[in-house]
Structure formats: C-alpha cells, structure tokens
Amino acid sequence: MSRRLDTYSLRLFVAVARTGSIARAAEQEHIASSALSRRLADLEHAFDTALLVRSPRGVTLTDAGQIVFERGVQLDDEVQGLIREVQLHSEEVRGTVRLYANMSAVVGFLPERLKAFKALHPGVNISLHEADTRDVIRACLDDRADIGIGVFGDVPSGLDSWHFADDPLQVVVPKGHELSQLKSVEFAKVLEYPVIGIHQGGALDQTLHERAAALQIAFAPEVSVSCFDAVCRMIEAGMGIAVIPQSAASAYAGNSRFVRRPLADLWAERQLQLYALRRTPQLRSVQALIDALRG
Hints:
Elements: H1 7-19, H2 22-29, H3 33-47, E1 52-55, E2 58-61, H4 63-88, E3 95-101, H5 103-108, H6 110-120, E4 124-130, H7 133-141, E5 147-151, E6 159-166, E7 169-174, H8 187-190, E8 196-198, H9 203-214, E9 223-225, H10 228-236, E10 242-245, H11 246-252, E11 258-262, E12 271-277, H12 284-294
Parallel strand pairs: 3-4, 3-5, 8-9
Antiparallel strand pairs: 1-2, 5-12, 6-12, 7-10, 7-11
C-alpha cells in the first residue's frame, strides 16, 4: 500500500480538510477540482476506507480521515522542512514561492514587480493566490504562504513585516458628477450619495462600515460586488460612486469616463505590508522575492 501513497496527495487531502471544500482546496492548490477528486479517491482506495463524507455543503472527515489529516500535517511539515534544508544548500535561487496577496496588491502593484523578479530569477516559480488580508495573514501563520501582502495592521507574533506600497483611498465618480468639482472629498460627503460596495466582509468593507458608524451615519451600499472592475462598471452605469484604493482606481477608472478624487480623511492614507513567517534563514527563493518586493 505504501507504494500507492504520495506526499502530494496527502498535501491535497490536508488542504481539503482545512477548507472543508474540494473546490476551495483545488483553487488554493492550483489544481482542477476533478483532478483533486481523483487524487482523493485514489487515497481512499490506498487506505481501503472512506476518509471524507461528501455533501452539497462541503466535506467532513470520518474518524479514519481525522487520523490521516493529523499525520498528513506532520508529514507535510517534515517534507517542507526537507525541501527548505536542501534548497538552503543549493547554489541556485530556484524553487516555488507561495505568495498570498490581497486584491489591490494583485491589481495595482504585483504584475510589473513579479515580471521584473522573474527576469532576474527565472528558476523561481510564483504560486500566487488572491485572498482578503485576514486570510493572507492566517495563511502565513499556518505556513500555507511563504509571503503575504495585505493592508497594514497589527503584526501577529511570529511574523515579520515590511512596507510594500502606499495605496491611499480615492473617491471614484462618473464624469460630470457634482463631486468632481472638489479637489478632495470627505467620507461624510460621500455618504450623501448612493455608494457601490466592494467585497462584502473584506478589509475595506469593514473599514468603511466602521468609519460610517463613527460618523453615526449608516453605510448601506446601493449594491455590493466582488471585484474592482465590477465596481467601476456600476459607477459607469450611474448606479453610484465608490471608495476604492488608488491602485484599483488607476487600473479600472483611468479614462475620461471617470473622475478620481482623494478621500480627504486621515485614515484614507492606506498602506500595504509584506508579511512572512519568521525564519532564520529564509529559503533563498523566498528571501530573494522579499528583497525584490521591498525594493
């Protein structure tokens, strides 16, 4: 039976157990859901017992599955430790770096920086996963991410942190809107108009709700969407205005159909940070990417 077991299948099983979903685990591990399901079926065949209970709501572990999950986590940690140890003694900068980043970093900063990095280090593969800042930090703490990029905040114990980019908030309105006459716009003024929300429950959404509550004004978006390009389409269609990071505004509202104005409030000076699990030394590939992104 041992010949039919492989560490990659165990890693996929651990990802499924952690997320509670084959689809989410497949997205996280960059593999097709059908291929991941086949790996799970082979794993259950190798153990000759069911490891998961599948339902429309997701998956749960059987008693046998719980044992495989606990030992699988230990084995994956040992394998990753072996990989790090070998790569530390390699002369080349190569390997795979797991990078988790929030939406505005992916849209506004990473494409050009990763292209420049790959030109210098063609032997390094970047496994990029988009996630909310909370999930970015959790992925770093759980050692599912080598490097994370998210909104600046309190740094949990065990993580190192560096400045990545300034990404202040802007107000985006359609051409001809009365707010376009102002040089900057206060958040209280924004709330006088229909607002388009972004990524309900995410870091920016929570910030806007908190700041509105501090003003004793309800934050009730006209509609909420999941991505910045959808926000700008709603603005273009006349559904409302929005507060989004400068990086996203530049990417999706940088034409004559939109007007962008700085959000005047002090808390709008938003920063993005790099996060990484504290290790001495880091893998060469991870350290090289940290150095490049800090630069």
